[in-house]
Amino acid sequence: MLLGTQTINSRGHLEIGGCDTVELARQYGTPLYVMDEAAIRGNCRAFLQAFTGRYPAGVDVHYAGKAFLCLAMCRIVQEEGLSLDVASGGELYTALKAGFPPERIAMHGNNKSFAELKMAVENGVGRVVVDNFLEFSLLERLVEGRSEPVDVAVRVAPGIDPHTHRRIRTGQVDTKFGFNLAAGDAAAAVARAAQTPGLRLRGVHCHIGSQLLDSESHADAIAIMVEFLAGMRDEHGTELEELNIGGGLGIRYLSEHAPPALDTFAERLTGELQKHLELRSLRAPRLLLEPGRFIVGEAGTTLYTVGAIKEVPGIRTYVAIDGGMSDNPRPQLYDARYECLLANHADRPCDQVVTVAGKHCETDILIWDTQVAQPHPGDLLAVQSTGAYNQAMASNYNRLPRPAVVLVRDGAARVIIERETFDDLVSHDR
Q1: Which of 249, 255, 262, 372 is least surrounded by CB atoms within 10 angstroms?
Q2: Taking CA 420 as the corner, what is the angle to CA 414 and CA 423, rounded to the nearest 5 degrees?
Q3: Last residue of a domain, one of 241, 266, 295
C-alpha cells in the first residue's frame, strides 16, 4: 500500500515527496518521522472543497492540532485557508508563536485552567468551546470589564456510541467531554452562555469519536444536534448561527480499511444536515468541521533501522527496531494496527511473516504478524500512516530521545522538529 506521493525508484527504494528514504535515514538518522507536504496540502484543499461546494450557508474547516502540531504545521494550515483548533495552552502557544491568526483559532479542552482561558481570551481566539460549568465561572472573571464580548460555543455530548475503539469514543452518554444532552445539562449550558454578560454564544459543538470508517455515526449526530437546535429555538427564541460536528473521519492504516471517499462523506453529511434543517424549519447555521487524522495520518511515515532478529521455532520471528512505543504508543493504547515495508527493498515481495518489536523494556510490539520482504539487520523499515498521534504522543520512555520530523516535497527535505539529544534528556534534571 503506497500512500500520498510514495513511489518505488529504480534502486528499489521507497521514495516520499521525491526523496529517497534510504538517503533520508542516512542524513537524519532513525527513527525518523517523514511528513509528505504535498499530501498534507492536498488533503487540506480536498476537505475544504468537498464541503464548501455542497453547503451554501458557509463552512469553516478547523484542523485538529492534537493530531500533529508544530510551527511548520501551523503555517501550512494557515496557507491552505483552514482554521485551527487547539486543546491546551501549549498548543495555543505554538499557534501564536507561528503567527497563526488568533481569530481563526478555537480553544478546546475538557478541563481548561484559568491560565489557559486567560491566554485564549487575552489573545483574542475566535471561539472558546465551553466544556463544563466551572469554565463559565472562570470566564465570568476574565470578561469582567472587557469592552468586547468573548465568543463561545457549547460542547454537547449527544449520546452517540460510535463503532470505534472504546478509548477514542467521545460523544456517548458516559463521557468526560461536554454537557450531557439527555440529562438537560446541554440546554442549561446554552441558557447560561446566552445570559452571561461578556459572553456571546455563537453555536454548539459535538465530537463523537475518531477513526470512523463510515458516515452513520456522523449522520446520527447531525439529526440529534439539529433537534437540539430546534429545541433551543422553541424554548429561548434564538437560532444559533454555528453547528460544529467535530472530526473523526478514518484513514487507511491497513489495505483492508475502506473509509468513505471524501466526496461521498461530504455529500452524506451536508445532505443529512439540510434535510433535518428543513424538517425543523430552521435557518441553516454555518457548518464547522474538525479533521485531524484525515489531514496528516496517511501523510506520515516512520523510518526505523532493523536490529536483532530472533526466531521462536514454530511460533514467530521477532524483528527488533530502534524505536517503538516511545515514538508510537498507539498499539499499546488502542491496539492500533499498521502495515510496513522494507524501504531499502521496496520492490521485493512481502512474503515473510514477522512481528515488529520495539526496543523498550515492555512487551513493546509495534506490529504483530505482518508481511514484509525477508529482513536483515541494518535494513530500513517504513511503517505507513503514522502522521497522526505518533509524534504528538511521543515520550522519552527508557530515556529515548524523541525522533526528528522532516517535511519532504519535490525532492527536498527540511527538518521541522529537531531530533532530541541525550543532553536534552537531562536539561531539566536537578
Answers
A1: 255
A2: 140
A3: 295
Which of 19, 206, 340, 361 is labelled catalytic? Answer: 361
102/251 same-domain check? yes
CA distance 383 to 6: 12
Which CATH number goes with the domain that contains 314?
A: 2.40.37.10
CA distances from 363 to 155, 271, 293, 320, 355 (A): 38, 46, 27, 12, 12
Of 271, 295, 319, the residue that ends a domain is 295
Tell me the C-alpha distance between 374 and 377, whole Å.
Answer: 11
Measured CA to CA, the distance from residue 291 to residue 52 in angstroms comes to 14
Question: What's the CATH number where 93 sits?
Answer: 3.20.20.10
Tell me if 5 sits within 8 A of 17, measured CB to CB.
Answer: yes
User: Residue 254 contacts by C-beta under 8 Å, 6 or more apart in sequence?
Assistant: 1, 337, 338, 339
Say if residue 257 is in the same domain as residue 155.
Answer: yes
pLDDT, tens only, 43-95: 999 999 999 989 999 999 999 999 999 999 999 999 999 999 999 999 999 99
pLDDT in tens, 196-238: 999 999 999 999 988 999 999 899 999 999 999 999 999 888 8
Do 200 and 107 share a domain, yes or no? yes
Q: What phi, psi does 180 have (nearest 5°)?
A: -65, 125
Rounded Cα gap, residues 31 and 25, in angstroms: 8
Q: CA-to-CA distance for 65 and 47, rounded, in angstroms?
A: 16
For the question of residue 350 being annotated catalytic, the response is no
The pairs formed by 159-162 with CB atoms below 8 angstroms and a separation of 24 or more are: 159/224, 160/208, 160/209, 160/217, 160/220, 160/221, 160/224, 162/208, 162/209, 162/212, 162/217, 162/248
Residue 71 main-chain phi, psi, to 5 deg = -60, -45
What are the residues whose beta carbons fall under 8 Å from the beta carbon of 234, sequence distance 6 or more?
A: none
Range of 380's domain? 7-30+299-426
- Residue 1 is assigned to a structural domain of this protein: no
